Amino acid sequence: MHKRSPLAPDSFPHLPAIDGLGLAVAASGAKYKGRDDLLLMTLCSSANVAGVFTRSDTAAAPVQWCRDRIISGTARAILTNAGNANAFTGQHGRNSVLQTATALGAVLDCAAEDILLASTGVIGEPLDTTILTPHFPQLAANDTASWEQAAAAILTTDTFAKGAHAQCDIDGIPVTICGIAKGSGMVAPNMATMLAYVATDAALPAALLQQILSSSADQSFNAITVDSDTSTNDSVFLIATGRAKHRPVTSPDDPRLAGFRDALAQLMVDLATQIVRDGEGASKFITITVTGAATDHAARQIGLAIANSPLVKTAIAGEDANWGRIVMAIGKSGFNIDQNAICIEIGGFAVAADGMRVADYDEAPIAAHMQTASIDIAVAVGQGLGTARVYTCDLTHGYISINADYRS
Amino acid sequence: MHKRSPLAPDSFPHLPAIDGLGLAVAASGAKYKGRDDLLLMTLCSSANVAGVFTRSDTAAAPVQWCRDRIISGTARAILTNAGNANAFTGQHGRNSVLQTATALGAVLDCAAEDILLASTGVIGEPLDTTILTPHFPQLAANDTASWEQAAAAILTTDTFAKGAHAQCDIDGIPVTICGIAKGSGMVAPNMATMLAYVATDAALPAALLQQILSSSADQSFNAITVDSDTSTNDSVFLIATGRAKHRPVTSPDDPRLAGFRDALAQLMVDLATQIVRDGEGASKFITITVTGAATDHAARQIGLAIANSPLVKTAIAGEDANWGRIVMAIGKSGFNIDQNAICIEIGGFAVAADGMRVADYDEAPIAAHMQTASIDIAVAVGQGLGTARVYTCDLTHGYISINADYRS
What we know:
The structure is a homodimer. By secondary structure, chain A is α+β, with helices and mostly antiparallel strands. Chain A folds into two domains: about 20-275, L-amino peptidase D-ALA esterase/amidase; about 285-405, Ubiquitin-like (UB roll) (Roll), CATH 3.10.20. In chain A, about 30% of the residues lie in helices and about 25% in strands. In chain A, a hairpin with a 2-residue loop joins β11 and β12 (about 350-355). In chain A, α5 crosses α6 (about 260-275) and α7 (about 295-305) crosses α9 (about 325-330). The longest helix of chain A is centred in the middle third of the chain and has 20 residues, at about 260-275. Chains A and B meet through α2, α8, α9, β13 and α11 of A and α2, α8, α9, β13 and α11 of B.
């Protein structure tokens, strides 16, 4: 594993078990040696599950499988393997999915269709399922792994395990939410090269769960970018085991859901930004806030144009307040922006307004801000009420080192 | 100046003078010391001129000026300064343009409106015209600089001067075409961070000249990308002095233009690919050919998705045949591609077909190709007859080094 990101949190947070959810890990040795690379999550019979997946046209075989399966809103288990993406593997890949699901279903006494799958790793290599299947009985028999073990088993080029925890209540009854994620490179909407699993003991119908997940993903996993590259395998699952004893919730407008929605949204932003903090080679965490766009969509795209600009990212890596590159990125975003209406702040300090540098521009406080680990860029474009917040990291020699020899 | 790109041609080609065009250079010392940074091109009275410019919404003041001026199809001179882009400089920048054009017009005895301007360099810094104007009399009096001197005077982070030359005939009369360009970073359509000046002694009406330039630019300067970042200042000028003695050409469909069109197109691709060969930190020249897309536009966008992918570019930098990243880039391009129809070749060797790695995949010849300086990627997507060719370079530590401290 590469050196732990300087932007990583001090430690993995304490995540309590979720009633009705089992976690199990194993080491297949398929690609990585001396570490777990398989994660089995088993769901109780009352559980519902929702999912959002990459919009890539070259989505991996397990993603294609899950897109079909998730419609049922239920599953018996989710199996994840790290090291091989089973992407662009054609009929062989589809066979691998079916073999895996069938074998695991046999062990768990359920249909193949009740198994969800996720894979991460190299694209284009056939996945040899005979390396995975012998571990299924052991995985099924030992479902008391910790969240931290689970988070560690799904990593690829990540430098730290990512987890988050929230408590809230529904109808006065305490509800727990826990989540883990992986992702470090090939991270861009929609989604990032990332896998995330969020579980709660709340009791929520599948359709409602899907609606909540989709809207939360827009502000979190779809608002991050490391390198503008969108993975073939991105998957986010939201599991509700239904073990909490609150009265049924059926409507998305139910006011008793407000606290849960807020807690989930915050947790998903936490997980998503941990992925950015583990961006390959990252030395700076960058938050870009766009206001005054014609629409929220336009604001997002303007924010992403800045976040994905190699020139902006390298300037920040060099701690250089080269804000002209932000102007360039806004200009190329394609939303017919009037440059005379652009305002830019860095670290809360005004840089540009009325189409030029502010009259009393003082680079000293901005230069000091550039030397911190968290860079804040705020842009207003004077077109309307659209807003968005986007998270990214800088582009450093570390990114080149990691990616010029990842597969070899 | 940074170390000369390993992809540079051996030497600057011999470019003959164009009858009716004067070249003059000077060193203002505004940003660079010990080198020329001003280029004056003076046009004879029979000359016509066409231009294409960045589509950025934050286009620089000189670009805004030229967009208005170029409509007339004539100009007395084009002045270029290197080191300051006069971009995002607001009313001050517009004043600088007017002051510069007025001062030069006074020296050349013409109206300010007869002066075209181009700037390249840092964005957002006010341009002090008093540093430039004292050089105008000397520039006007010595218009016999060489093309190589002219090409050197407009460079910024470039590591070599770029020129190209072609001979053809119109109506049996020999016609000369010469061109120079600069560009190294912030290079992406449309255009690249680039300036280019192509001049011919052909006699062509302004409207026809504009039509020929626009169509040639699509296959050349709009088909290159270094870092996906689009400049505020991109400008390409095509000058026809009208001194060649061929009979008048008025129609774009005139068959006597075929040789000229071909020669110009080839020269512009030559210049554009020299910019890619000077891409910041470039160690590999990459040609991406896309066929079978629904439209030429789709083919171009698919090619650019591959060309702009940091993961593809870093893999090539590492000489790693990590073709799964090409699959990823195709998948994220957003053209609803059927992955089972994708075929990929690298260096002429089949890699993928029918949605997976080819059965007899042999990495040895591909690995050998990856070690060469010119990488060829061919992609077919099985949707239609759209084709495009896109040129780019790899993403190396050199790019990071150059851009993390360019302005400071």
